Amino acid sequence: MTKRQYIISSFIISLAGTLFAGYLAGVKMFSGSCAFNEPCPYFLGQPACLFGFVMFLAMFLSSAWSLRQADRIPTAARINTAVALLGMFFAGYYSFGELSIMVYAPDEAPAYGMGLPTCVYGLVFYVIMFALSLRAVLKGNDRPTGPEAGPPAASDTGQPDDEKPAGESGQG
Fold first, then answer.
1. How far apart are CA 133 and CA 74, in angstroms?
2. For residue 47, what is the enclosing H or E element?
3. What own/partner pairs with CB < 8 Å and gap ≥ 24 does 148-152 have?
4. What is the predicted pLDDT for the residue at 148?
5. Dihedral (Cα; 56, 57, 62, 68), 10-degree rounding
6. Hey, what CATH topology would domain 3-141 get?
7. How many other CB atoms sit within 10 Å of the CB of residue 5?
8. How far is Cα 56 from Cα 43, in angstroms, rounded to an integer?
């Protein structure tokens, strides 16, 4: 995956996550009840979906910030990796709790409007974003690739210094 493909993918995924979590948070904030008539988990006295919205918004802004300038992509990939990891733990914690009720006490489990708790869907977005972003970080998007990279430096040709033509010893 090229840097450009990564940043477009991360932009789209984080936008989808922001819209999804924003919808959930908006419904809760303006109507007082959770979307899809689900139970609403709280964290630090606030709806958990509000924290999900903030994390997705951070990844969206990071990705949007990098769309026009390729030199920002490595920084965006690192930010997105860290935020997605935090989001995976956050959504995973709530998903585990809600899925445990579905598995071990199905008679007590609420009916979920989307089949599964919305935290699970948020977790899926975080996992995808984490995998893409970590791959971009590990792949070394700090180095330009493709036509914009230009020719390799003399020291990067793979030839030992004594086999290089005169003037290309790689020493300054």
1. 9
2. strand 46-47
3. 148/70
4. 54
5. 120
6. de novo design (two linked rop proteins) (1.20.1440)
7. 11
8. 16
Structural domain boundaries of the chain? 3-141
Question: Measured between alpha carbons, how far is 150 from 42 in angstroms, rounded to an integer?
Answer: 52
pTM reported for the whole predicted model:
0.77
Positive or negative, the Cα torsion across 36, 40, 41, 42? Answer: positive
Least confident stretch, 75-84, 133-142, 157-166: 157-166
To which residue do tokens 């033509």 refer? Answer: 165
Share of the chain above pLDDT 90, in %: 58
Distance CA 114, CA 101 (A): 16
Q: What is the mean pLDDT of residues 48-56?
A: 96
Integer Cα distance of 3 and 73 in angstroms: 7
Residue (of 24, 118, 6, 22) closest to 62 by Cα position: 6
pLDDT, tens digit (0-9, with 9 covering 90-100), for 25-46: 999 999 988 888 888 899 999 9
Measured CA to CA, the distance from residue 11 to residue 132 in angstroms comes to 11
